Amino acid sequence: xxxxxxxxxxxxxxxxxxxxxxxxxxxxxxxxxxxxxxxxxxxxxxxxxxxxxxxxxxxxxxxxxxxxxxxxxxxxxxxxxxxxxxxxxxxxxxxxxxxxxxxxxxxxxxxxxxxxxxxxxxxxxxxxxxx
Length: 131
Description:
This protein has 3 helices and 6 strands, in the order H-H-E-E-H-E-E-E-E. The chain is α+β, with helices and mostly antiparallel strands. It has one domain (2-130): Nuclear Transport Factor 2, Chain: A, CATH 3.10.450.50. Strands 2-1-6-5-4-3 form a 6-stranded mixed sheet, covered by helices on one side. Strand 5 and strand 6 form a beta hairpin. The longest helix has 35 residues, at 2-36. InterPro entries: NTF2-like_dom_sf, SnoaL-like, UCP030561. GO terms for molecular function: isomerase activity. It comes from Indibacter alkaliphilus (strain CCUG 57479 / KCTC 22604 / LW1). Residues 28-126 form the SnoaL-like domain.
């Protein structure tokens, strides 16, 4: 009995680690694409019906195509755009990134927290906190 319980616990831990690895990988993929200003690579980790909010629950928009329209011009017109990852926490299917964003050299740094919720292998929800 103890052996069966031990095997089940190991399986649960391995499954949890796999979920966290996937979540972190998706968050990093979109961050790398953001910094490269590559709209197609940026959108790839997101679910087609991704929902974006201002934290805690102020709905902003839904869908990859809405996301595309918001980011495509910014990428094309912001050669200095860069996001520095200050700190990342991963728990289960949720990734929390503390970020410093440079929009234009010489402008003040923009501070933000992005919370990514991963469902079925895609970023399904994003919550932003900024100052």
